[in-house]
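Blinded run. Sample ID left blank on purpose so nobody reads anything into the name before looking at the predicted structure. Input follows.
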Amino acid sequence: MYVYAYQEYSVTIKNRLQLGFGIVLSLMVLIAIIGINEVSKIDRTMSKINEVDTVKQRAAINFRGSVHDRAISIRDVVLSDSSAERQQHLQDIERLEQFYAESAISLEAMANNPQQFTAQEKTLLDNIKTIEQQTLSHTAETIQLINQGRDIEARDYLLLNTSPAYTQWLKAVNQFIDFQEATISDQVDYIRQQTGGFMALMITVTLIAFVIAIFVSYRLIGRLYSTIGGEPDSAAQLIRVFASGDLTQQAQTKFPKSIVGALSTMSSELSHIMKAISSSAGQVSDAAKVMNQTSADNQSLVIDQKQQTLDGANAISEISTSVQEIARLTSEAAMQAQTADKETINGNQEVAKTLTSIAELAAKVEEAARVIDELSEDSKQIGTVVEVIADITEQTNLLALNAAIEAARAGEHGRGFAVVADEVRGLASRTKESTLNIQKLIEKTQSRTVIAVKVMEEGKNKAHQCVTQAEHAGESLEVISRSVTAINDMNAQIASVAEQQSAVAEEINNNFRRITDVSDKAEAGSQSISSLSTELNQLADALQQSISKFKTAS
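Blinded prediction complete.
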């Protein structure tokens, strides 16, 4: 309602302030721009006077001084009778020419710049240069006549030509100086006019800005008063009264749509609102108490349900753990049975290999026994040969003895034969000893061969026994392999059933977990509702206390 009332005004206070101060600031900016422009013009004019016109005027004044002094010096040269004085005057003329040339350089540089030299100034300068050339020619002619000693002719030439030339030269320079003075005077007059106009403009614009500022201030004050509805202090005091809770006060204003009028309407509306809030706060407090009690009952039921669900979940978890343990043990037993089956198969293979090895060993033992029997027969034959060698050795010994006896009888003739007989007897003796040793070795070999034959016979018998026992072991391992296979099949069936039971138990356990989670959420929700009910009750009490601070009209 009141928002639309304020929107009826097409221009707000903010916009009016911005417009008023914007106009004043615009005028100030305009004044500044005009001032900067005028000052810039004055500055350019002053700069031209100082940097161009004054320099040209100074150069022209230097021209005039140089020309004037040279006219005097050339006159003194003609009138002087002393050669030293003439020489001094000639040096003065050269110095003045140098001074003139220096000023001419700066002036010539300006003459080459169209922005610094006008056409009229160019004409005046060209006239000066023309007269300068004529005058310098007359001056040179006069000096030449003096140097030739023609003093009377020099005086006449000075009066008729040189002096009039210098007069014309000075006149031309003075015309240039007068022109520069007139130009500077015109520029100074322009500056004065600009300054006077600038002052008048500044005064006019300032007066306009002052009038506009007074008008804007008057309009703003009227608008502020109609907007506030009275003095700002009165409106602030009324707001403080309402803020303290006293809504019984009524504001008096001529502007019902102002802030003070809106405050008066607001106090009436707030009185009705506070009464409605007070009634609603009581109802909210009662409802919060009922909801708090209901939430407490629900929370107790949820806690009991959660405990029962936890007990069921723990029982199912223990069952699942037991089933998983059975499945694990069954799986391990199946793995052990498979390992035993593999080892039984390996044992059968090893028994078969053992049977083959024992059979080969028995064959080797029989072969060794046969070889040892042959060795025994060979030993017997060697013994017979050794006996024959022993007999031969005895006979050889006897023959050697007889030969020694016969050699002794022969004396010196039989000495060589006696030596041979001794050697034969020694050889027979050593052969006998070797034969005895061989006989002993043969007897020892025969005794050991007999023992080896007995051992080989016993080894052959043991090999046959091992073959028989290995065959029995293979048959036992075959029986064990069949039993292990049957156990492995039963373990696989038990493991499959245990896995199914474990999956079912796990699914039941998951269901109990979900029920527990739902119970936890329900418990948390009940606690949250209980907490919110308590807070709602507290807020209702606080709202009642806050509303009690306000005084409303009956």
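Unblinding after everyone has recorded impressions. The longest helix spans residues 259-410.
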